[in-house]
Amino acid sequence: MPSSVETAPPRPAPASLAGVTAAELEAADRAARHWSFTPGTDPTADPQVAMVARLMLETFNPYKPAVIDWPVLDEAARARLIALPIWDIAVQTEGRARLRILSFARTIQDKLLREAFELMAFEEGRHKEVLSHLVQAYGIQLEPEPLYVEPKDPEWGFLVTGFSECIDSFFAFGLFALARRSGFFPPELVETFEPVIQEEGRHILFFVNWLAWYKRRQPLWRRPWLFLKILGVWSYLIRERIGLAKDVSAGEKENANFTVEGASAVGEDIDTAALMALCLSENDRRLSGYDPRLRPPSTVPFLVRLALPILRWQARRSR
Which helix H or strand E contains 28, and what residues bound it? Predict the structure, then answer.
């Protein structure tokens, strides 16, 4: 029987969360952005597994959502925040992601790798906690949350979550930079979310490199099936995002996400080509501090680079 989120216990917060000083938080924030792998005595014969797992475990940032000092917003800034059509889908996405990751983690035999997955699930749950505190602090009304149910196929569920994050994080990097430079939100509020945005960068780097290793270790008979499953995930995600775009245009708040109509939402007049170029540069910047032996996400950046000359030509024609 599928179980709800309440029956899947979250990973306990690490002991380092207790009594963390401002200096320790600052050092952890730096460590979360700059990391190189040093082989050690990990209980695994595969150095690729050790590198992927250590990426997550050694770059953990122990910020505490429960004690975030949310800045006071004037009425105009608060109205802009409330008007963003993202809050319901953002909270629900994090809730589903946490449960899907935990579900897949139970299938992993390697202890170090399973610990990395459990930490990733903990961080997704923490993102949901950040959002929950934010909506409470600023009086944002949410729809009742659905009952989160474990996927019948844990592998499918985790692949959906991983590829979803690769898509959404790429665009979120650019939109977050746009929000910062436009002054759409107070700098204090933008900086409050900075660790969450960087954490998503770690997650997609972990996912892409885990998947490369996971493909290689599959027996020959199963590789075509995994390939077809990945194609199915991409097909599902494309259909889902087309549906989201239609729902946003129809004004349905519960089906919006931050990547749809994002530039106009954060208050800056920017053409699509410029926004895509910003997403590319931010993606490169946020992932540049990690070990160069790690493979960066490539599908979405490749497609955007392919489309960029056409987008720039269209932008010049419309001027």
Answer: helix 22-31
